[in-house]
């Protein structure tokens, strides 16, 4: 078996940072662990963030490489924005593909332009959009069956038709491409439809009906291979994922070690979210009033502020951090946190999350129930999966889908934050039991013979069949 699969060579072309790059790197590592030769194509600046991780894999015998392209995208806090133009990478990519024709290339949807060059060269192109099956199915059905422009208001609820669960949404929660269909081309959908298939970071058991929907869609190939974050088995791998953490390990670890099991709320809004100072203050007041232990990773949120504001720290209520420190109630961190390690700590009781799909899967795989605070992308739809289908989270009450980098239309007030934390605490035990069962299913899915394991093998098999057919 090993000798046959060794002959399969896969390229992975992740987006330039954040929540799209991290899971694709893990996916490349998963395939390498199944005997494939995986090459991750990256910009020179970005490659630095995961070089150590890949070197460790190589030292452990995996056939995995990084190819740094000859063009670069400056590595700034903004470089992972979905709107960053990456077409400067086109020629170096074409050159690399001409010289090294792999059996397939997995391409992130934000590198939409790469579709044509891959197609011209006759290489199997596999689509990756970073989300699960549930939003795909929900959005397809809204697109086809709901006249959202005819709803009475942004807040008039409607049920999503043709889905096995009762999902109620409002127009205010929908991504702009679903609200204003005329203004958006179907380019991403076309890219997906013209591809060899789709690799999905999810696992069958978390969303079986929706996974079936994906597998049946246009008779298309869909391989569900996650949660890919579970390939990070050592503390080292969990620490250096995406970026090297900038928060002091001894500080957070000692602090968490001093807390009882299931007592601390982890608060993070992912790698990109930018919340204005007014909203940050409401979070701080809400957390303080809820009397809940917490670790709050503010991270990139601060990038929305002017340097002067950042330095003056006036985005937090006066004396907040000192009070939290003295009472031992909370820690506020600026920068990049080792999220997988924190979520895996026994003291963590819950995760206040923006419902990014990676954070959602990481929370689920760690057996941690959630407080959901969606902001953009497909996060409002993920919230429905978490709170209404799986019943492993409570909603903070965020209502407005926000286009990336635009101004918040309405704040979630401190009362709502406090109330959500208190409601969460009342329901945490029941939710924890449910999410731990799902976490166990996730663990089994990626082990030998599990659903995700088998889908990885199935894709390798399909690529071998294609290769053989092309040789005839
Ligand atoms: N992440 C992290 N440390 C941070 C912030 C984010 O490790 O301080 C990781 C997190 O574990 C996840 C990814 O960044 O894998 C964020 O992806 P997600 O889909 O949740 O949200 P996005 O950043 O794309 O909005």
TrEMBL record:
Pfam families: UDPGT
Gene3D superfamilies named in the record: Glycogen Phosphorylase B (3.40.50.2000)
E.C. number(s) listed in UniProt: 2.4.1.-
GO terms assigned for molecular function: UDP-glucosyltransferase activity
Cited SUPFAM superfamilies: UDP-Glycosyltransferase/glycogen phosphorylase (SSF53756)
PROSITE patterns: UDPGT
Coiled coil: 414-441
Domain of life of the organism encoding this protein: Eukaryota
Enzyme class: transferase
Signal peptide: none
Keywords annotated in UniProt: Coiled coil, Glycosyltransferase, Transferase
UniProt cross-references to InterPro entries, sorted A to Z: UDP_glucos_trans, UDP_glycos_trans_CS
Family statement drawn from the similarity comment of this UniProt entry: Belongs to the UDP-glycosyltransferase family.
Descriptive protein name: Glycosyltransferase
Lineage: Eukaryota, Viridiplantae, Streptophyta, Embryophyta, Tracheophyta
